[in-house]
Amino acid sequence: MPRDIAVIARHTCVLLARDPGTLIAYAVMSSTLMAVLHPVYQRMAGPGVSGATSAAAGTAVMFTLLALDVAGEQILAERDWHTWDRLRATPARPVAVLTGKALPLVTVFLALQALLFAEAGWWYGLDLTAGTWRLPLLWLAWASCATALGLALGAWLNSRGRLGAIADITAMITTGLSGALVPLTGLPRWIGDLAPALPAYWAVRGFQAALGGHPAGAYTRAVLAITAITVLAGALAALGTLRRTHRTA
Amino acid sequence: MLHASRLRRRFGPATALDGFDLTVTAGEICGLIGHNGAGKTTFARIACGLDRPDSGHVLIDGADPARRAARRLTGWAPQEPALYPTATVRDNLRLYGGLAGLHRRRLRTEIDQVTTAMALHDLLDQPVGRLSGGQQRRVQTATALLHRPKVLLLDEPTVGADPATRQALLAAVRARADDGAAICYTTHYLPELVDLDATLAVAARGRVIARGPRESLLDGLPGTARLRFDGPAPGHRGQDTLVITSPRPAEAAAHALTELGSDAARLRGIDITPPTLDDLYRHLAAPESTHAA
User: Which has the closest alpha carbon to A201: A232, A168, A226, A172?
Assistant: First the structure.
């Protein structure tokens, strides 16, 4: 099975590299938006959280969520190209196919976050060393979560149009209500009550905790919450894939 | 090698397979012919492990097609192109070859050989989406042949191919059969089955209604002899051609010549047409189709 995963992961990298427009656009847009919004984040920063931390965390979370459709596309395109049945007719197991598709996406989402935090460190003085191992671990956890959510959307939706619409709406609403776009201190209280139900809230809180703006334990709770959501979304993606397998049969 | 027994499969009220039996032995090319809806594609999907029959079974070298061991032995090229259009021909071949267990040098060697055999070598680094329909069909067939499977299921692989590339593709398929593969070849171009020296299976209404070597299935079907005359044919006012329909048209024509008498001087030509696969197809499948309708 590791060999099948490697073959599919390599092929997914080829597909992403052949059509990189969306990912490049998200990288440029997120970088630009962070530059534009940094002064706003600076003014609205909550106690113990720097503007640079809020800007980097908020932008990284928002654009990782906007890129959910890139992940979902990896499943939906297989149906449009009629290649799903060809994959099923090979000796590769469905879990190997799903894992092989997920690994490059996790890497891409991880790189997108690293790029934004590096930019915040370079231009806005964000002290990345304060996060030590906790920051890369959270990048990885959040990248895995976004990948699982995107694959689940791709496995359960039936068209690219729906995927694009739902991914964008989900990303914007989740980003807005989680405090990623505007810090929760600047939003109505009911949004603050609702925010813990959203994965983006835990990502933002985790980044702030990793860089020293939250009490001890907040980081661990954030990682655990993100991991739980990842497992749930991964299970949904697997179920959706199996459902598709039986339906096409 | 490929053995299907009493397959039944229903999709809601529609019966796709209704007692489908077929055995293809190692080294044999079986031409599976039949009207659209005869059950050919459903059979192929079951043989690939993509679908399960309601009853009956398929064995690939003794194994259930749903098992990984059986899938490694099977190559399948479906009717509609199923390739990654943004990836190159080489990328597509690497994927399917890699999943079939080919790696590194062996994978490179097999890609080289199959693309050369199928006149695809110059297209290796072209994105599949930029190829013509016929070229894409060849790439699809190449992905099925790549790992030298023991059982090959090819569904109309020559659609859209020009005569030269069709011959290259048929030669590659023939070569795999000579290497011992059992090949189930679906087509509507019946002369291809003569070129492939294939045995025949005629499918209609979800089952195989005729199976065997071409010669034995054609035996007994009527062919035609056409005798053309300068002026009216003997006994046919206004028509210059005497048409004789017989299971042995050449013998019938020879017999007619002995009875021409003075009319033999007006004979301008003789055309003998033995029974063809098209005749067989019409003879066997058409009544079934009409009945089904």
Answer: A226
Residues B226 and B213 both lie in one domain: no
Residue B41, domain extent: 2-217
What local confidence, expressed as pLDDT, does residue A221 receive? 93
Tokens for B82, please give them. Answer: 């199923």
**CB of A226 closer than 8 Å to CB of A206:** yes
Tell me, what's the pLDDT at A215?
Answer: 67
Q: Is the pLDDT of residue A76 over 60?
A: yes
Is there a single domain that holds both residue B257 and residue B176? no
B280: in domain: no
Question: Which residues of chain B make contact with A15, given a CB cutoff of 8 A?
Answer: 84, 86-87
* B162 and B268 part of one domain: no
Tell me the shortest Cα–Cα distance from B224 to chain A, in angstroms.
45
Q: How many domains does chain B have?
A: 2
Q: Which of B147, B142, B146, B170 is nearest to B158 (CA)?
A: B170
Residue-number span of the structural domain to which A15 is assigned: 2-248
C-alpha A1/C-alpha A10 separation (Å) is 14
Backbone angles phi, psi at B236, to 5 degrees: -130, 95
More confident residue, A38 or B201: B201
pLDDT at B38: 86
Phi-psi label, residue A15: left if phi above 0, alpha if psi -120 to 50, beta otherwise: alpha
In this structure, the answer to whether residues B55 and B144 fall within a common structural domain is: yes
Say if residue B205 is in the same domain as residue B263: no
Name the CA dihedral angle for A84, B203, B35, B148, rounded to a multiple of 10 degrees.
40
CB A74 within 8 A of CB A153: no
* Integer Cα distance of B101 and B97 in angstroms: 6
Residue of B nearest to A79 (CA): B82
Residue B253: both structure tokens together: 């024509």
Cβ of A87 within 8 Å of Cβ of B72? The answer is no
Model ipTM over 0.95: no
3-state helix, strand, coil in chain A (%, to 5): 85, 0, 15
Distance separating alpha carbons of residues B270 and B280, to the nearest angstrom:
23
| CATH number of residue B142's parent domain | 3.40.50.300
CA distance B132 to chain A (A): 16
A46 in the Ramachandran plot: left (φ > 0), alpha (ψ -120 to 50) or beta?
beta
For A15, which of B51, B86, B99 is closest by C-beta distance? B86
Flag whether residue B143 sits within 8 Å of chain A, measured between CB atoms: yes
Residue segments in chain B with a per-residue pLDDT below the cut of 70: 285-293
**Residues 6 or more apart in contact with residue B60 via CB below 8 angstroms:** B1, B2, B47, B70, B73, B74, B150, B151
- What pLDDT was estimated at residue A130? 77
Q: Is residue B231 part of a domain?
A: yes
pLDDT of residue B293: 34
Instruction: Give mean pLDDT, residues A23-43.
Output: 87
